[in-house]
C-alpha cells in the first residue's frame, strides 16, 4: 500500500510488495472487526472487500513483474488509494481507522512523486468512498473499540519508519553516486588515470601549498607511444586500447605515490614529479623508457613491442606551468624527429639535450 525507491527507482514494486500485503491484511481485519462491533452479518460487499484485501496485493505484484517500471507502481499506488476509499465505506467511514491508512499512503505517494501524486490519490479515495457509500447507503460510525485502532496505527508506524529508512538509504545511494560521478569526471574512462582537468586542479593545489621562498622543483615528462597508430591499423582498436591500459598501468606502478601520471590524449601521457629536479627527472624518464622497451604487451594471444619517446622539462612555483608543458612537448617532438625511443631534455627552453638509449636495448625494443 505504500511505496518509495530503494536500491533502484525502477524496482520499487518489489520492495513495496510486503508492505502492500501487510496493509491490506490489516484493512481486511478492520472489516471483520467493524461487523463484530455492529453485530451485523457479513454481506456480499463485505465478503468481496475481504477477498480484495487478500488477492489484490498479489495481482498488483504480478502486474509489476510484467512491467518493472516506476510508472507501473505509480498506477498501483492510485489503485491503492481508490481501494482505501471503497473499503472505508464498508467500515462506515470510521475516522480513527481510515485516517492512518490515508496518512501513511499519502506519505508514500509524496515520496514517490510529490504533492501532485498525493492530490490525485486523495481525490480517488474520496470519489470511491462517496460512490460506494451512496450505493450501500452507509452511515458514519464514530465509535471505535481499542482493538480496532491497533492495526491502523501499527501500519502507520511501520510505513513511516520504513519510509524514513528508504529515504535515508536513498540519500546515501545518491551521495555515493554523486561522489562516484565526481570521481569519474576526473578520470580517463579507458585507463583509469587522472585526466587533464584533474591534473591542472592538483597542480594549482600543489602550487598554493608550496612555500614561495623555498620553491621546490617539479619535473614534467611528456610521454608518447612510438608508432602506436600501427597497432590500431594492423590489429584493431581493441588491441590499441589494451596496450594503452597496460602501458598506463606500468607507468603508474613505476612511480612514487606522490607522483602523478595523466592521460593527456590519444597515446600521450603526462608524468608530474613533485620535488624532483631536472637530473632526477631525466633518470626517472629513462627508467620508464627502459621498462616499456623491455616489456611485452599482449592481447588476444598477440604480443606487442612498444617504445616510448619522452620529453622532460622542469619548473618551480615561480615558473609558468603551461609554458613548461610546451617545453616538454617541444622536447618530445625533437625526440620524434631524432628517431624515437629516447629521452630528450628541454633545459629551460634554451636548448634541447638528447639522451640516447643503449644500443643493445634499442635493438631489443623493436617499435610497434
From TrEMBL:
Region called Disordered, residue ranges: 348-368
Highest taxon of source: Bacteria
Class of enzymatic activity (EC top level): transferase
Gene Ontology molecular function: diguanylate cyclase activity
SMART domains cross-referenced by the UniProt entry: GGDEF (SM00267)
Ranges for domain GGDEF: 216-348
Cofactor dependence: Mg(2+)
The keyword Transmembrane belongs to this UniProt entry's keyword annotation: yes
E.C. no: 2.7.7.65
Coiled coil: none
Residue ranges crossing the lipid bilayer per the database entry: 15-33, 45-64, 84-106, 118-137, 149-168
Catalytic activity, as annotated: 2 GTP = 3',3'-c-di-GMP + 2 diphosphate
Keywords associated with the record: Membrane, Transmembrane, Transmembrane helix
Pfam family, one: MASE2
Protein name: diguanylate cyclase
Originating species: Leucothrix pacifica
Species classification: Bacteria, Pseudomonadati, Pseudomonadota, Gammaproteobacteria, Thiotrichales
Amino acid at each position: 500500500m505504500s511505496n518509495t525507491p530503494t536500491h533502484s527507482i525502477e524496482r520499487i514494486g518489489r520492495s513495496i510488495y510486503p508492505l502492500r500485503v501487510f496493509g491490506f491484511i490489516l484493512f481486511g481485519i478492520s472489516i471483520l472487526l467493524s461487523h463484530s462491533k455492529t453485530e451485523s452479518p457479513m454481506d456480499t460487499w463485505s465478503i468481496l472487500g475481504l477477498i480484495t484485501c487478500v488477492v489484490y496485493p498479489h495481482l498488483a505484484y504480478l502486474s509489476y513483474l510484467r512491467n518493472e517500471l516506476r510508472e507501473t507502481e505509480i498506477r498501483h499506488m492510485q489503485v491503492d488509494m481508490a481501494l482505501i476509499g471503497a473499503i472505508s465505506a464498508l467500515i462506515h467511514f470510521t475516522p480513527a481507522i481510515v485516517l492512518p491508512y490515508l496518512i501513511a499512503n499519502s506519505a508514500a505517494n509524496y515520496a514517490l512523486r510529490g504533492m501532485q501524486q498525493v492530490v490525485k490519490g486523495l481525490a480517488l479515495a474520496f470519489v470511491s468512498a462517496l460512490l460506494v457509500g451512496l450505493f450501500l447507503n452507509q452511515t458514519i460510525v464514530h465509535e471505535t473499540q481499542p482493538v480496532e485502532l491497533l492495526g491502523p496505527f501499527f501500519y502507520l508506524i511501520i510505513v513511516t519508519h520504513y519510509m524514513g529508512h528508504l529515504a535515508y538509504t536513498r540519500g546515501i545511494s545518491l551521495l555515493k553516486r554523486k561522489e562516484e560521478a565526481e570521481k569519474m569526471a576526473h578520470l580517463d574512462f579507458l585507463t583509469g588515470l587522472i585526466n587533464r582537468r584533474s591534473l591542472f586542479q592538483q597542480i594549482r593545489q600543489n602550487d598554493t601549498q608550496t612555500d614561495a621562498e623555498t620553491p621546490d622543483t617539479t619535473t614534467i615528462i611528456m610521454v608518447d607511444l612510438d608508432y602506436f597508430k600501427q597497432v590500431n591499423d594492423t590489429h584493431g582498436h581493441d588491441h590499441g586500447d589494451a596496450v594503452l591500459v597496460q602501458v598506463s598501468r606500468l607507468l603508474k606502478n613505476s612511480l612514487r605515490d606522490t607522483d602523478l601520471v595523466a592521460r593527456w590524449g590519444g597515446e600521450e601521457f603526462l608524468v608530474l614529479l613533485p620535488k624532483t629536479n631536472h637530473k632526477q627527472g631525466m633518470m626517472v624518464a629513462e627508467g620508464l623508457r627502459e621498462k616499456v622497451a623491455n616489456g611485452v604487451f599482449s592481447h588476444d594471444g598477440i604480443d606487442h613491442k612498444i617504445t616510448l619517446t619522452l620529453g622532460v622539462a622542469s619548473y618551480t612555483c615561480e615558473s609558468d606551468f603551461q609554458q613548461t608543458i610546451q617545453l616538454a612537448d617541444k622536447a618530445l617532438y625533437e625526440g620524434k624527429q631524432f628517431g624515437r625511443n629516447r629521452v630528450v631534455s628541454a633545459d629551460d627552453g634554451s636548448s634541447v639535450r638528447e639522451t640516447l638509449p643503449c644500443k643493445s636495448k634499442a635493438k631489443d625494443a623493436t617499435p610497434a
